[in-house]
Amino acid sequence: MLNPRDISVKQKLTIVIVLISASVLIISSTVFITFDSISIRQDVVNEMSLLAEVISDNSAAAITFGYDEDAEELLSSLGNRESILRGIIYRDTTVFAEFYRDEEIRASSIHPCEFTTRSSFL
Questions:
Q1: Contact between 67 and 37 (Cβ < 8 Å)
Q2: What is the pLDDT of residues 105-118, one digit of tens each?
């Protein structure tokens, strides 16, 4: 093992600068990755909220007049997005229209109204 007294001042400064640079790089990378993951999650939440608003606005007439076929057609447009596996429109606490990407999802799905009340969503 080298004795610190045997190392020149130039080498000591180089070691200190390298350690500080590595520490700053690790900290800044951690902050960047954390911020980026939070930002991506927030973007997904905002996109899904906007999509839910559009579906809600466009399905109001179908719900009011009881046109479940129109509501299901509207929900089928969700099939364009790979990340959406299912969509359900409720009228009171009953399923009015629904969309599933495939039958496996339909078979494994539990409707939220089956295990909770509507007031718990608010």
A1: no
A2: 666 666 555 545 44
